[in-house]
Amino acid sequence: MNCSVNILFLVILSLGKLTVAEDNTSTKQATDWCERNCPKEDHIGCIHKNCYTLDSPCELAKIDENVILDTHNKLRNTFAKGEEKRQPSAGKAANMMYLNWDIYLEYLAACNLKPCAGMKHDQCHVTEKFSTAGQNLAWSSNKGDCAAQVPTMINNWYGEIVHIPQSEFDQIAEKYHKPEGKIIGHFTQVIWARTSHIGCAMARNKKECTFACNYGPSGNIRWGRIYEEGEPASKCPPGLLANYEFQALCGKKEPKQEPDSTLHSSQVQNHIVFLILPVTILFANM
């Protein structure tokens, strides 16, 4: 005589890298980065796929977005208050935005680094939210901890402030242009008042560290105004007030973004999946 018993087994599957694909229940379809190609260059997210996995021998270094944001916002706050001693003629900034993190700018920064080819600007990294996006790059030798070099890299960008002659600062701030023979674009992007979001990534190999940050909306618009002069946070965009921590900046810290279908099947992370499987076991009576 035979009999059967239904038993539920708990099975744990480690899937390692799991790709977040389009969610059919979402009202927002996955972004096709190739539809955002620019007139002079294809979109970096169209050229490279799965950008959180870099080409060998590079890999993404783990960086702390809070360190990047705090370093930028402290510099912007100091400048907006008129406390930058290296440019005493700069005055105060009335409309300097507080920077928040953007995961799409971060992903596209990783796309820039994917080929493991060192520093090379790409010209097309716009997103649905930002029709213009700026970019800063930095490089250093690998001294064992690439992430620890991030604050120095950002401060070096800002340090280009000394390349602007004091007699020309007001003119450049009102109508952005580069002084002949001077590199100032990293600094001006760091303090560009209307820029509100940033996303960065870092590549490392045994020899070097390469850091990329994308900014939205873009700074360094030729003949654009870097900032408006006036009392700090006195000309914030409608509905925005001075930041609680950085009171010379406009806007508040936004809730952390969660990856959704617009990352176009590119957000990769580790997952453990628990499955409960019904199994029928047949017993035979001899």
UniProtKB/TrEMBL annotation:
SUPFAM superfamilies: PR-1-like. The lineage of its organism: Eukaryota, Metazoa, Ecdysozoa, Arthropoda, Hexapoda. Residues 1-21 form the signal peptide. GO terms for cellular component: extracellular region. The keyword Secreted applies. The keyword Secreted applies. It comes from the Eukaryota. SMART domains: SCP. Residues 63-223 form the SCP domain. Gene3D superfamilies: CAP. Keywords: Secreted, Signal. Coiled coil: none annotated. This is SCP domain-containing protein. It comes from Ceutorhynchus assimilis (cabbage seed weevil). It is found in: Secreted. Belongs to the CRISP family.
